[in-house]
Design a protein that fits this description.
Largest sheet: 8 strands, antiparallel
Strand content: 25-35%
Oligomer: single chain
Number of helices: 8
Number of strands: 17
Distance between the termini: 96 Å
């Protein structure tokens, strides 16, 4: 029983250490800004490029000015490492930001993820936005665009859509926001959640204009293997905007990014039907699971038996010791005395009986 309990303690301790390790790994690659300029960590973590500047006494970031051909970016300075360990465990991540755009039809806003090797090419101090930046390179840049301009050159759906871009401004998948009664450029605040699940290799986008509550169902999703795209390369994340030949302004109110680092054995890996059909061995798999189940049951019953045996021994000893009485010395002991009983016949003389001698 003691060995079983000690093993449980070691398991719990290992799990706690593992959680602390995950927390330490994710801390350096996670951030949250609710009020940009007023945050003491802003200058050391965030860089502004182009026309991007503080607004509303430092609480917001304005990416574009109300003049044509204005562009600006806000980027997280530290590169984010998405691959950890010798087994190349890829991390999942989530980002949330709130923004608004004025009613003009500009190029809109994009959340961009840029490989570290392209940092000097794409993220210089020059003033450019999504269209001016991605259009000049042929790199593995991944972006989620919130577009308010229908550009036939890139096959845009309309002037109010969300798209996923991979190495090009021609989106690999788009969806019309009007179908969900959402308008990007009506001046109202838009909340956006972008999640990437490493286990399913899937990126999901959620939006809301009614509040900051995250919708359950994604508005747009796309399957992409970022590990295959970037390998072990670190990436930079940011928000970029340009207004083209318009005076559209774009504001960022809050932005957060969270890295979720878990090893492969904690992920539910997506199944490949072809691989299963080719290599699966149903009988062996069933036996494997059965053996595992029997092992768990054996450990459980062994622990229960040890517990019951220990409890019985303790109870037995307690009964013996509790009922034990002190023993008197031999010389002070009491010895039983035997008595003999005999019949005695009494004869009474008649004279005595009558009072005569």
């Amino acid at each position: 029983m003691a060995s079983f309990s000690i093993s449980n303690y070691f398991t719990a301790l290992t799990f706690v250490i593992f959680l602390f390790k995950i927390s330490a790994l994710g801390q350096s690659s996670s951030f949250s800004f609710q009020s940009f300029g007023k945050d003491p960590n802003f200058e050391s973590s965030i860089a502004l490029y182009g026309d991007a500047h503080f607004a509303n006494d430092g609480s917001w970031i304005q990416l574009t000015k109300s003049v044509s051909w204005s562009a600006g970016k806000v980027m997280y300075k530290k590169p984010i490492k998405l691959v950890e360990g010798k087994v190349r465990s890829f991390a999942s991540f989530s980002t949330y930001f709130s923004f608004s755009m004025s009613p003009e039809n500009g190029d809109g806003l994009a959340f961009v993820m840029v490989p570290g090797s392209l940092n000097g090419t794409l993220l210089g101090n020059s003033s450019f936005g999504v269209s001016l930046g991605l259009d000049k390179i042929k790199g593995d840049v991944v972006a989620v665009e919130f577009d308010t301009l229908k550009d036939p050159k890139y096959g845009d759906l309309n002037g109010n859509h969300v798209g996923i871009d991979v190495g090009s401004l021609a989106s690999v998948k788009t969806r019309n926001l009007s179908s969900a009664n959402l308008v990007l450029n009506n001046g109202e605040k838009v909340h956006s959640w972008i999640d990437y699940e490493a286990s399913s290799k899937r990126i999901e986008i959620r939006l809301s204009q009614s509040g900051s509550t995250r919708p359950d169902d994604p508005f747009l999703s796309y399957s992409i293997d970022l590990l295959k795209l970037w390998n072990d390369e670190e990436v930079f994340v940011g928000l970029s905007s340009s207004n083209g030949n318009s005076s559209q302004t774009c504001f960022i109110y809050s932005w957060s990014f969270k890295l979720r680092q878990f090893p492969n054995w904690m992920h539910s890996q997506p199944l490949d039907p072809k691989a299963i059909a080719k290599n699966s061995k149903p009988v062996k798999t069933v036996h494997k699971n059965s053996h595992c189940l029997w092992k768990v049951l054996a450990v459980f019953f062994f622990g229960s038996a040890c517990g019951a045996l220990t409890a019985s021994c303790v109870l037995y000893l307690w009964t013996i010791l509790g009922n034990r009485r002190p023993v008197a010395p031999e010389e002070c002991g009491e010895h039983p005395v035997e008595f003999e009983y005999k019949k005695v016949k009494v004869v009474v003389d008649k004279a005595v009986k009558d009072g005569k001698n």
